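Following up on my earlier thread - several people asked me to post the actual chain instead of describing it. Fair enough. Here it is, all 204 residues.
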Amino acid sequence: MTTAPSFIDLGASPAVVRALSTLGITAPFPIQTFVVPDAIAGRDVLAKSQTGSGKTLAFAIPLVERVDPAGPTPSALVLTPTRELAAQVAEDFSGIAAAKGVRVAVAYGGISIREQGRGVGRAHILIARPWTGPLDTSRRPTRTIPGGTRSSPRAKPSRRSTTGSSLSRPMARSRRSSNCSSETETSRSSSSEPSEGPTASCRS
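Reply from S.P.:
Thanks for posting it. Predicted structure:
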């Protein structure tokens, strides 16, 4: 009769096994039996299982075992589709990560960036929910420059020299239309020869 494998048989370290035992987990679930050995060995794994079947620990155990506490931070990234799931995954990780000296942090919207930044910078494993909404660029002024348009936190009118003269004056802004992007301004030098150049973009 074949006995079920233990976490030690799957490749988990004694420290992680003790942490799992403290959480009341003494034997691996089927999904963990299939995934953990290959993941600890560094092989690519794609697995599917029902809710509550132990999927989180199936990838948490290998990550905790493979991450070096003395290595760079972060060393591993876990992405989740919701903030709630990110918090849940981080909680599942923390129980076994501490046993190996590995730090875990979460990053998602709705919380102060400064507050999250302190934990993210020190974490070996980062649990994150990527932003999927529209980007608000309405408050970012822009200006037209030769070769394209770029964002500028403080757009200032540039100054240019008049052709053939040492005099300079601020670049004029177009007020002809509220939806134009750029136009050519002609300036005349002391020799009355035209010189063309791009002006700042105009906005409504």
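Residues 1-66 form one domain. That should answer part of your original question.
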